[in-house]
Amino acid sequence: ISDQKPLGCWSVKHGQVLTCPVVCNFETHEYIAVHDDRVLRIWKNEDINLDKAFKATLSADVHRIHSLPQGGPVVLFKGGGVRTLDVLLEAPQQEIENIISDEAIRWSGAFMESQQPVVVFATEKDGDFFVYVQKPKLDSVHKYRLEPQESSKPLNFTAYLKNQTVTLLCLYSNDSVYQVLIPLQQDTEEEEEILPKSLLLNLSVSGSVLKGASLVVLDEDHVAVLGSLAAPDKEPRECLTIWNTKFQTLQTSKELPLGTSGQLWCYEEKFFLTHGKVLTVIMYKCETSSLAAAVGKLKDSQTPGVSSFVNWDTLEGEDLVVSFQSQESVALKSESRMNLRSRRSNVAKVQPENFSVGQLLLNLKDAPTNVLEKELKQLMSKSQTPDLQAAIGSVVTALTNRCKANPRYYPQSFLLQIVETRDLSYSLCPDLMPIALEKRDFYLLQICLQRFPDIPEQMTYACLKTFLSISDAYLRMTDVDLDSVICYIDVEFNNKGVKTEIVENGFNAELDQDTCDTKIPRQSHSKSDGESCPIGPHRAALLNAVLHSAYSETFLLPHLKNLPAQHVILFLRYLYYLYVKCSEKVNTTLPGVRSPTINQIMDWMCLLLDAHFTVMVILPEARELLSNLHKFVRAQVRFYSELNKIEGSLRELQRLNHLRDSQTYSIEVLEII
């Protein structure tokens, strides 16, 4: 999530529809999906084509699949039947019983109890709500009826299992949360036993009422509710709230001005929700419930006003200094379970030099430049600093904030030292590369492109456009790492031209001349686009850094379409040059440190052609380049086709070599027919 890069993408055929959420099997690390209600698909991360994945057609419609970390997946059918996945795969067409009749499943959940999976689901029929508890391995089913509530009905459910009792929390339309206890040990088989409910929480604060949409349980004392807060004479505002059910208080809340889908997920102490068009992940930490914490009196004396429950900085987009301060505050409180009196006595003993990183950076906000850099270098030298990587990110943010406040200030050597010696990422210091681009610090940008794994595509495009548009005279005066080009570009320092080392190594560079429209003499051919580098080494080194940067084609293509045509042609000519150089080597790799790979070169050529193909076809100056590309690729296709024809013979030769006595010297002539 921090890298913002899709790790995998799979799609069903046109006309097919995924009919329940895809889950991951924790035991086998496989994905499980259902499309068209009955078709089960199972595949692994390395599988590319979903249509070729494992397929099983079931005998009944699937409502949902639940994956349990230690119990494997369980499948809930629309008729109320439940099967574990392994039992289902033994006979996919086995008959599935219908437990419910004319009832619609409104919610379901799965738990582990005594190493046995337990499935709980709620149904509705004619305004009445029922709860079913199933243990598929024990073939046990219990049905309950929820106690009716006048003039209101359940909108959402959540549950947790503890001490062989399922605690079902129901969010009702009267803006209240009710609790229902369901014991798993049943001695009798009563028909539709009525489950009593008790009021757990009223969702109202100071006259404002929360119209809940989603409800998740955090622990036995805390719940999170996503909904719309309606106050008298005010527009409703969507917000995420966390409530203490033990003391019936609002723990913390956050307004969501961009709106949500109404869905909220919770997994491993993280909230997942859509905020506008973005999937937002918010970390939280549940502490032991106490009255002081419930009424907001349990605060860290060093960080006043910072919530100890949730780090809201994910939503606010504030400086990383504040973000890190908030994270450290949460960590301090989660590690300590002291009572309020002992906490106060310990805080009083804290010395000024032991202030948190966030507090130190805030204190240095207005410090002189020499003092700022001195203190930051001392901070970085402390290897025992907790969460050192976040601390380094905060240091870089403090420096970039100073650069924005004072345009004349730019600690180039200090920033370069941090980037070269620390394991940073773009998300830890999002203002660093924009400032380096503004200052035209190409060396720092080159290092960032090579090292940062999560550079946004917009920033990659901005660097590419700048590298292509800057003049050669300016580039020759800049400091750039030439290690990636110096081994295959021989630089003439009188700047009259760029020579290249031609190493054919068994590959004929006069490509497919018999199929070309005109014969190209060797002398003129040596100066063609494929054999003379169209750009200088400084620009080539910067473009190589762009080729190394990670990207997602979906997000990069819209930006590449804005690249001017002359820049596209120049970049394509350089990529074509690299392509020819790679093909001259037997192992299709370029010499040097961090040189582009053949796959990176091909991917970027395809990206540029996809983004500008129509323009390239129309422009007269691009026709020769496209023609050369076409001829070169065609020659390579023919060359590899010929290799494929003799692949069987080569394998037979390899087998014969293994059978021969390696001690015997002989000369043999084998005819390949």
TrEMBL record:
Q: Which GO terms describe its cellular component?
A: nucleolus
One Pfam family matching this protein: Nol11_C
Occurrences of domain Nucleolar protein 11 N-terminal (ranges): 1-285
* Any GO BP: maturation of SSU-rRNA
Q: Where in the cell is it found?
A: Nucleus, Nucleolus
InterPro entries linked to this entry: NOL11, Nol11_C, NOL11_N
Domain Nucleolar protein 11 C-terminal, first and last residues per copy: 363-671
MF-aspect GO terms: RNA binding
Q: Which UniProt keywords apply?
A: Activator, Nucleus, rRNA processing, Transcription, Transcription regulation
Q: What is this protein called?
A: Nucleolar protein 11
